[in-house]
Amino acid sequence: MNVYDSTRMSDVLAPLGYLPTDQPDGADMIILNTCHIREKASEKVFSELGRLKQMKLEKSADGGRMILAVAGCVAQAEGDEILRRAPQVDLVFGPQTYHRLPELVTRTLRDEDAGGVLDIDFPLESKFDALPDDSVVEGASAFLSIQEGCDKFCTFCVVPYTRGAEFSRPAADIFAEAQRLVAAGAREITLLGQNVNAYHGDAPSLVFGGAADAAASSTWGLGRLLRYLAEIDGLERLRYTTSHPRDMDDELIAVHGDEPKVMPYLHLPVQSGSDRILEAMNRRHTADDYRRIVDRLRDACPQIALSSDFIVGFPGERDEDFADTLRLITDVGYAQAYSFKYSPRPGTPAEAIEQQIDEAVKSERLETLQNLLSAQQIAFNQSAVGQTMRVLMEKAGRRDHQLSGRSPFMQSVFVEANGRLLGKVVEVRIEKAHARSLEGTVVTGTYSGVAGVATQPSNHSGGPSMEAAS
Ligand code: SAH
Ligand code: SF4
Predict the structure, then answer these.
(1) Angle between helices 222-229 and 250-258 (to 10 degrees)
(2) Ligand 1 in contact with 242 (CB < 6 A)?
């Protein structure tokens, strides 16, 4: 979501004459768009600010001026503490106020606010209504924020405090933004939200405008929204992240079974396999509830691959709780996963629990867990060898004449090919599997046109990890 927000900040700043650059040295403005989810992330902000101070001084010595800004959730959480601790910072603004950047930059340049400009409101107006319609799209895969904030209050998590209450954008606005992204070259769109499947945005008024529809629901869930977006010509793939198990409703599960543009891959964080810990985390589901959701997803879409987030060393986690987590991982089988040591966050209920776990125990559990998850990822990648997969070619690879793309299951796939194939979905025979990527050969010039349909029949033989034919 920070990547999406950064792109939108560039869009807002473009009319003021600012352009993105790869070179922070000598830039007129540097914005650190920050994350507050774990302690390490916010520590990094302050060490980075130390480094940037030097650059700012060099720019001043050359007679120029560099605006140094901190955005995102660290800005939201720390507020004027940043201006106090790092006086080289000119501007601090949160994730819900970046549409006000033109005004904030003007105030900064006029030096109206001695000691720095601060805007960490949760404004009544939605930033989405104020953001410009044109967006800079780079590459074939784009992000689109559809939902923000969270009302779930897991006891370890800062998101409800930094991103605020749950909010869903109207379906018609999302559709219009998706159309613009596709017109600008996107072939895949990943819908974003802190709790993306809690989406409940206003339905388009054309559909529910008439009196006859008065009884019909005027909000849509994520399943309905995905079907609507799948109608966009030229859009070939849809993904969404991050989902909460409690919001995997029947309609959303069904979409995985019958909408070929929705990719057979789902990031569905579970955090722990222990019911006792899940309860202490306020996740409001059990490990078996999660297993049942996975079963239903696999009934709807047998080839679906899963990914998850895990936290080890949550306060009070015993050896037997950790063993339950390992058992859940073994039962489900993941294509990839993210795992973290529990990090106490200021102001969250879990921080106040007395039985905090030793760092050494956390490290040991993390290593055990990651070994199991890596073995599963390697096995999943190995099972792709010999298969033909549809791969969206996204960028140049590490070597000359090499491109890199994504399989339906989010695996990075490297092929020898020329740049003509960038932005296309091509059929690739997978020949080699690595721990975190695949290598293969493009199958005889087969490519998909704008409609996303292969122009020649492929010679694949099907199999459990194939993308559903479109
Ligand atoms: N809304 C998503 C998660 C968003 S936060 C969900 O409910 O699953 C992304 C991930 O960061 C979480 O899934 C969790 O695994 C991790 N995380 C969040 N807070 C954390 C903390 N205090 N310590 C360690 N990991 C944390
Ligand atoms: Fe944080 Fe996700 Fe829980 Fe919301 S549902 S509080 S974002 S972990």
Answers:
(1) 30
(2) yes
Query: Ligand 2 — pocket residues by CB below 6 A?
Result: 150, 152-154, 157, 159-160, 194-195, 244
- The owner of tokens 């920070």 is 2
Reported in sequence order, the residue ranges of 102-158 that DSSP labels E, i.e. its strands, are: 117-119, 141-145, 147-148
CB of 68 closer than 8 Å to CB of 90? yes
Please enumerate in sequence order all residues whose Cβ is within 8 A of that of 117, keeping only pairs 6 or more positions apart, or say none: 90, 91, 92, 93, 104, 107, 108
Ligand found nearest the CA of 196 = 1
Rounded to whole angstroms, the Cα distance separating 313 from 235 reads 42
pLDDT digits (tens, 9 = 90+) for 392-417: 999 998 888 999 999 999 999 999 99
Q: Please give the distance, rounded to the nearest whole angstrom, from the Cα atom of residue 411 to the centre of ligand 2.
A: 26
CA–centroid distance, residue 10 to ligand 1 (Å): 27
Out of 35, 195, 340, mutate this one to test ligand 2's pocket (max ligand atoms within 8 Å of CB): namely 195
At 382, which amino acid appears?
Q
| Ligand 1, atom 11: closest residue by C-alpha | 37
pTM for this model (two decimals): 0.89
Pocket test for ligand 1, best of 151, 246, 311, 370 (most atoms within 8 A of CB): 311
CA of 85 to the centre of ligand 1 (A): 27
Q: Is the CB of 244 under 6 A from ligand 1?
A: yes
Question: If residue 208 lies in a helix (H) or strand (E), which one and from where to where?
Answer: helix 205-208
Sign of CA dihedral 237, 243, 245, 251: negative
The residue whose CA has the least distance to atom 1 of ligand 2 is 157
Cβ atoms of 76 and 37 within 8 Å: the answer is no
pLDDT, tens digit only, all 470 positions of the chain: 899 999 999 999 999 999 999 899 999 999 999 999 988 877 899 999 999 999 999 999 999 999 999 999 999 999 999 999 999 999 999 999 999 999 999 999 987 667 899 999 888 778 888 887 776 667 899 999 999 999 999 999 999 998 899 999 999 999 999 999 999 999 999 999 999 999 999 999 855 444 545 445 699 999 999 999 999 999 999 999 999 999 999 999 999 999 999 999 999 999 999 999 999 999 999 999 999 999 999 999 999 999 999 999 999 999 999 999 999 999 999 999 999 999 999 999 999 999 999 999 999 999 999 999 999 999 999 999 999 999 999 999 888 899 999 999 999 999 999 889 999 999 999 999 999 999 999 997 544 443 333 333 333 333 333 333 22
**Distance from Cα 157 to the centre of ligand 1, integer Å:** 6
Taking the CB of residue 83, how many other CB atoms lie within 10 A of it? 20
